[in-house]
Design goal:
The structure holds two protein chains of two kinds.
Chain A lengths: L1 H13 L9 E4 L9 E4 L9 E11 L2 E16 L2 E13 L13 E5 L5 E4 L2 H18 L7 H13 L2 H8 L12 E4 L3 E9 L5 E14 L2 E7 L8 E2 L1
Antiparallel strand pairs in A: 1-9, 2-8, 3-4, 4-5, 5-6, 6-7, 9-10, 10-11, 10-12
Helix pairs in contact in A: 1-3, 2-3
Chain B lengths: L1 H10 L7 H12 L2 E13 L5 E14 L2 E13 L2
The chains are: A alpha+beta, B alpha+beta.
Chain lengths: 237, 81
C-alpha cells in the first residue's frame, strides 16, 4: 500500500495527480500519402489472469526511490462493457531488492465498451478503507511521514477528492494500459491531444501533448507521446 | 492551479494545525510555481489494445520557499506474459 500513500504525500505537497484523462483530439493535417492507418480495438482476453509489472523511479531533492509492483488483472464482461479486477500481488524496493511493505487491496474498475474507466466498484466502501489506513500507513512506511502538516493535507486530500480524482490517483500506475486502445492512428502523423485531468484538493492539470504512432511490427504498434514544440508544452491550469 | 490549491486549503479544517503552521503552509503555496512535462514511449497490442510496454517520464519543477525543487518520475509498465 505504501506507494499509493507515498504518491498521496507527494500530491499533498505539490497538488499534482495525473493519469486517467478525458481526452479531446485535434489532428494536424498530414500532407504525405499514402497514409497507413491502424485501428486499435479494445478487445482484452477475458476471464484469465494477465500479469503486469509497474515500476516507479523518483528523483527528488537529491534522493532516489524505486518501487516495482506486480499486478494480476482479470477482465470480464458486464452488460455494457467490462469489469477489470486489479490485484497487486507483490511489491519490492528496486534499490535494495527487499519486499516493499504492503500494497493496495484488490479493486474492480467498471469499464465501458472502449475500455475507458467509468467507476470503481463499491467505491464508497473501498475508499472508506483507504481513509482508515492512510494515516497509519504514512506514519509507518519507510522514512515515515511525521509532519502534522503533510498528514493533515493528505487526510484532507483523500476526504474531499471527487470520485474522478480518487480514480485518477488510485489507478495512476496501472491505468495507462487502457489509455490508447479503441482508437485509430495514422503512422507518422502528429496528433495534438489535450487532456484536462482532475487532481486531488480541487486542482486540475491541463496537459497538451503530441501523439505519434511511428511504426508497427507484427502484432504491435510503437507510439510516442511528448512535447516537441513550445505551443504544445504541458501547462498547469 | 495554485489559486485552487490555496482556496481548498483555506476551506479545510485546521485538524490540529496551529495558526503559525497554517500561515506558513499558505505562504508556501502562494510562492509556488509549477511546471510539468510528460513524455512517453509505448508499444501496444494491435489485437487487444492493451499496452505491452510503456515508459513515461514526468519532469516537475516548482518554486518552494524561493528555491527550485525538481523531481523526475519515470513510470515503466511491462506485460509479463
Amino acid at each position: 500500500m505504501s506507494r499509493f500513500f507515498i504518491a498521496l504525500a507527494a500530491a499533498a505537497l505539490t497538488a499534482v495527480a495525473p493519469v486517467q484523462a478525458l481526452a479531446m483530439y485535434q489532428t494536424r493535417s498530414a500532407a504525405r500519402a499514402p497514409a497507413t492507418r491502424i485501428h486499435i480495438p479494445f478487445n482484452p482476453p477475458l476471464d484469465r489472469p494477465l500479469h503486469y509489472r509497474s515500476t516507479v523511479r523518483t528523483q527528488r531533492n537529491g534522493g532516489s526511490t524505486a518501487v516495482s509492483t506486480d499486478y494480476e488483472i482479470i477482465f470480464s464482461r458486464r452488460r455494457d462493457g467490462f469489469r477489470m479486477l486489479v490485484h497487486a500481488t507483490g511489491a519490492r524496493d528496486e534499490l535494495t531488492g527487499t519486499p516493499a511493505p504492503g500494497f493496495l487491496p484488490p479493486y474492480t474498475l467498471l469499464l465501458d465498451e472502449d475500455g475507458k474507466v467509468e467507476a470503481l466498484e463499491n467505491a464508497e466502501a473501498y475508499w472508506d478503507g483507504i481513509l482508515q489506513a492512510s494515516r497509519p500507513a504514512l506514519r509507518t512506511m519507510n522514512g515515515g511521514v511525521t509532519s502534522p502538516r503533510i498528514l493533515n493535507l493528505a487526510d484532507y486530500a483523500l476526504r474531499e477528492a471527487t470520485p474522478e480524482a480518487r480514480l485518477n490517483h488510485l489507478t495512476r500506475y496501472i491505468g495507462p494500459i487502457l489509455d490508447y486502445s479503441a482508437d485509430d492512428y495514422v503512422l507518422g502523423e502528429d496528433r495534438v491531444q489535450v487532456d484536462p485531468i482532475a487532481g486531488l484538493m480541487g486542482t486540475s492539470v491541463t496537459q497538451r501533448l503530441v501523439f505519434r504512432a511511428s511504426g508497427s511490427k507484427t502484432g504491435a504498434c510503437s507510439c510516442r507521446r511528448g512535447r516537441p514544440s513550445p505551443e504544445t508544452r504541458c501547462a498547469t491550469g | 492551479m495554485r489559486d485552487r490549491l490555496i482556496a481548498a486549503f483555506e476551506r479545510a479544517p485546521a485538524n490540529g494545525r496551529s495558526p503559525e503552521e497554517r500561515a506558513a503552509a499558505l505562504a508556501e503555496m502562494r510562492a509556488m510555481r509549477l511546471d510539468r512535462s510528460v513524455s512517453s514511449h509505448f508499444e501496444l497490442s494491435v489485437a487487444t489494445g492493451l499496452i505491452l510496454r510503456l515508459e513515461q517520464t514526468d519532469l516537475s519543477r516548482r518554486i518552494e520557499n524561493g528555491r527550485l525543487r525538481e523531481s523526475i518520475q519515470t513510470l515503466a509498465i511491462e506485460r509479463l506474459d
